[in-house]
Design a protein that fits this description.
The chain is an alpha+beta fold. The chain has 14 helices and 20 strands. The strands form 7 sheets. Strands 11-14-19-16-17 form a 5-stranded antiparallel sheet, with no helix packed on it.
């Protein structure tokens, strides 16, 4: 297995070296080849990079689309935040390979961004600015170029100026409507990133104020947002906390806690970091793969979590996560299209570029995880656990709940009565042929029925016998024939096929 280390400055480097010297290296239990990792990155650059502009395109077809037309040239090129994430993807590549092309691209992306946004603080969103500050301190650590340190300090100084005592502390999400909780908020996205950057700046400069700011922000964030590893999203209004279960929040907080650990050597911070990652693995995955979180901004969230998992391994010796990264990278690269481009769902095939325009942030997440993971030399299909939580898969016309006890994961699918409403699982199996699906459900209003289809062809109408109450769970089994690889299995309300009554669906398990 390839050994990876990061070149870090200051106190964090001392802590990382001391930890890695005693770490026991775990063997990945997944599948990924070096060629797959290389191809994922090269395919992405070939499809999305405009060398004449030093900038990435928003879509694979290089034209603006109304659904996300907010970057330079009317949205032809990626917006402010997307470009920051793709810059980090380039740095993921350089950390893995130290090749001259990705080293040069670190500079090129930065130059293109400066040309597109000559005054980067002319942005209403502090988290956007904060991500460029974070990327800049990372670029400084990787390249030693002083201009990146200067940029990180300048941007961080601007963002940190929007910290105040409203809601007990923290930095405002936006730098407009400051203090107005009906139009603004304070969240993990802004503050987790700021903590990370402050501590890296402290490591680079020794300036005490960076450490003081990080301590203050982390205490506030930890006190108000962390619930034993499960992160809240934001606070707004009169002090109302809102919960969104994003990999983004889990990863951002884990990265901040890790940096606190590296500076203080207090194991309590490391425990907080791993608890956030563990919660994400337990609750935001299907059969071990991080869930599809949608399109636009959310399509890039997974790469932020996995990037911070990579840091936990490299900087704090948490090698138990190595197989998690390799399994996710393998799933992502196995589902790229014929052009080598991946999509937002790492468990399902990515549409061909001739049939759909793929957003660069989603494709960049596939390229990123392929660089973050350690290849194990295998290209076998990764089946994972075979357990898929219904609340984490593709849904149409249904919603999630968690009010009735006894469910697994973080909830279940409920409110399922409209004709055509469905839940679609992308099951990955290594062996083609007969398999058994086990559906865990509750039917508190009496017997219910649903249609089950595999890859668009109806398999059966399944009856869910009454469980006598919504807090009582049972199981039904469905025999199916699956192909090797990814299989789309949908469970839907089909009135014409006799579907009836309410049912809550907790999870699906497939025999492997």
């Amino acid at each position: 297995m390839t050994t990876r280390t990061r070149i870090r400055g200051g106190l964090a480097a001392v802590a990382a070296v001391a930890t890695l010297a005693t770490a026991v290296v775990a063997q990945p239990a997944a599948a990924l080849t070096t060629s797959q990792a290389d191809d994922a990155y090269q395919s992405f650059v070939s499809q999305y990079w405009d060398a004449s502009k030093n900038y990435f395109y928003t879509y694979s077809d290089h034209v603006a689309h109304s659904e996300h037309a907010v970057g330079p040239d009317g949205g032809v090129y990626t917006d402010y935040w997307w470009e920051a994430q793709l810059w980090e993807m380039v740095m993921d590549r350089y950390e893995r390979t130290h090749d001259s092309a990705s080293r040069a691209m670190i500079d090129d992306v930065f130059d293109g961004f400066q040309a597109a946004y000559p005054t980067p603080t002319d942005n209403d969103w502090n988290d956007d600015i904060g991500w460029w500050a974070r990327g800049s301190i990372r670029a400084y650590e990787l390249t030693g170029e002083s201009r990146y340190l200067t940029e990180a300090e300048t941007l961080f100084s601007y963002v940190s100026g929007y910290e105040d005592t409203k809601y007990g502390g923290g930095i405002w999400w936006k730098n407009v409507d400051v203090g107005d909780g009906s139009k603004n908020e304070k969240n993990v996205a802004t503050n987790g990133t700021a903590i990370y950057t402050a501590l890296r700046l402290y490591a680079a400069t020794g300036t005490q104020s960076y450490l003081d700011t990080a301590n203050r922000l982390f205490t506030w964030l930890d006190t108000n947002f962390d619930r034993n590893g499960h992160l809240r999203d934001h606070v707004s209004g009169t002090g109302t906390y809102t919960d969104y279960d994003w990999t983004y929040n889990q990863g951002d907080y884990a990265g901040a806690a890790l940096q606190m650990y590296l500076v203080t050597h207090d194991a309590a911070y490391l425990s907080k970091a791993t608890a956030a990652v563990d919660w994400a693995i337990a609750n935001l995955t299907d059969s071990g793969t991080f869930r599809n979180e949608g399109s636009d901004d959310t399509a890039g969230f997974k790469a932020i979590l996995t990037r911070n998992i990579r840091a936990l391994i490299d900087e704090a010796g948490q090698t138990e996560y190595e197989s998690v990264l390799t399994a996710n990278a393998s799933q992502a690269v196995q589902h790229v299209n014929a052009s080598g481009i991946g999509g937002g769902d790492w468990t399902a095939p990515t549409p061909a570029l001739g049939t759909a325009a793929v957003q660069s942030l989603a494709a960049g997440a596939t390229a990123a995880i392929a660089q973050q993971a350690v290849p194990d030399g295998s290209s076998a299909i990764v089946e994972g656990s075979g357990v898929y939580e219904a609340e984490n898969v593709d849904q149409s016309g249904v919603g999630n709940e968690s009010s009735n006890a006894g469910f697994s994961g973080r909830g279940y699918v409920a409110g399922w009565i409209a004709d055509g409403s469905s839940v679609t699982f992308h099951l990955n199996v290594a062996t083609a042929g007969a398999h058994t699906l086990t559906l865990r459900y509750a039917a508190g209003a009496g017997d219910a029925t649903r249609a089950v289809t595999v890859a668009g062809g109806q398999v059966a109408t399944v009856t869910f016998p009454s469980t006598g109450g919504w807090g009582t769970w049972s199981e039904v089994t469905v025999p199916v024939t699956l192909a090797a690889g990814s299989n789309a299995v949908s469970i839907r309300f089909d009135a014409a096929a006799g579907s009836s009554n309410y049912v809550n669906l907790d999870r699906l398990s497939v025999s492997l």
